[in-house]
Amino acid sequence: MEIIGSIIKGAINLKGALTSEPNHLDAQQKVLEQLLKTASETDFGKKYGFESILKSKDVQKEFASKVPYFDYHQLLEQWWHRVIDGEENVTWPGSPDYFALSSGTTGKKSKRIPVTNEMIESIRSAGIKQVEALSNFDLPASFFEKEIMMLGSSTDLQEKDGHLEGEISGISASNIPFWFEGFYKPGKEIAQIDDWDRRVQRIAEKAKDWDIGALSGIPSWMELMLQKVIEYHNAETIHDIWPNLQVYTSGGVAFAPYEKSFNNLLEDPITVIDTYLASEGFIAYQERPETDAMKLITDNGVYFEFVPFQSEFINQDGSLKQDAPSITLAEVKTDQDYVLLISTVSGAWRYIIGDTIEFTDVARAEIRITGRTKFFLNVVGSQLSVNKMNAALREIEEKFDLEIPEFTLSATRINDEFHHHWYLGTETSVENFVLAEALDEVLKKTNKNYKVARNKALKGIKVTTVPSSTFSEWSGSQKKKGGQVKMERVMSEEKFAEWEAFVSENISN
């Protein structure tokens, strides 16, 4: 009998039944007030008058009017460089024990994002909420006895100037509760291996020793790990190695582009659950199986604001114009892309996290990630967001029976005329010009702005197909493999030139 699993499942179900849904609007009001009270005596809080904001009749409105928007570089130059230098009480009381390193998708130099003890607790609390939400999914009691493969970055954090540094997945894994250690794989020893290829090799070697029931990690790197395990054991699918695998917790990027190729690694369907854990905090998680949307965590140390994602509010570098209007959770609507702003217990204030989201259910505060502000392709008015690119490629996959888990593109000039040059990660005998014509037609059909641009300055599409592995090798050459590293979907002309040189050299070799 699966006694332990039944007990755990029963406890989760009971906890879920006893936990009431927070009033999201009240919760956000309380979070903001608590953030302002806690940070009122910091240098940041004094400069922007947090005490006077708290005395106003409308704290949320006053906060928005008194505190400007900050992207990472603005916050670093004006405030966080002092935190990194060891000063205390700058944007949050005291000094953080950790810094999350995040090179994101835009360069080789890592960002250093403060991670306070309060943020560690916030992330842990959000993780528990997600575990509790498993009671809403139809999982057998035996599932709750299985092990969880968490494929993040290395937990071998580096000490620097009295702080520990690493990617947020490594920081989180190094702070897992003691009671969870028995379920956590690949375990501390392997998780500390810094070299991604060597770490995955050790996972492959040990894979048959584990009874994995769930996976957690970014889809692109998870796929590569599963392929390595399957290849190492000369298996047909990952279920030959882990027959009890039933759940995959995806995070950080949309799963849809990877769904087809991911499913080809499985013998049986598994439950895919989306999460939204960023270097700046645990933002949202999928709470129920009826939707792939995720619920914002509104009562856990993160205050949210939203700016309509419209070209007139966005600078060329993806940052917000200071006169762009922001709204609260009480004012959002469905079917509208928003730039997400967060203020957190790590001392981020009206921080442009870089993602765009849409609400699928306002009452439940459920969202989907639709793209990145820097991945918005608006050269000559085409107004292509990542979700529109993804949707178009899903149609191309179906039309030609392809798998296209990876892509990137740029607006390039050919004979002084603008074209969109797409690189698609796929193996196919379909000729590039056929794919280009089909993709162009799909985009014109589904995007009015793109259709208008195609009748004016945007002269056409060019498609180049390359092996999907080219994208992971590019990411490895730019930064580190694995962890939180994500492929840039839209590149500047300068970066695209680097990409094309890399592709040319990589494929020729």
Automatic annotation (TrEMBL):
GO molecular function: acid-amino acid ligase activity
Domain GH3 C-terminal: 391-494
Pfam families: GH3, GH3_C, GH3_M
Any Gene Ontology CC annotation: cytoplasm
InterPro entries: GH3 (IPR004993), GH3_C (IPR055378), GH3_M (IPR055377)
Domain GH3 middle residue range list: 297-363
Listed name of the protein: GH3 auxin-responsive promoter family protein
Organism listed in the record: Aquimarina algiphila
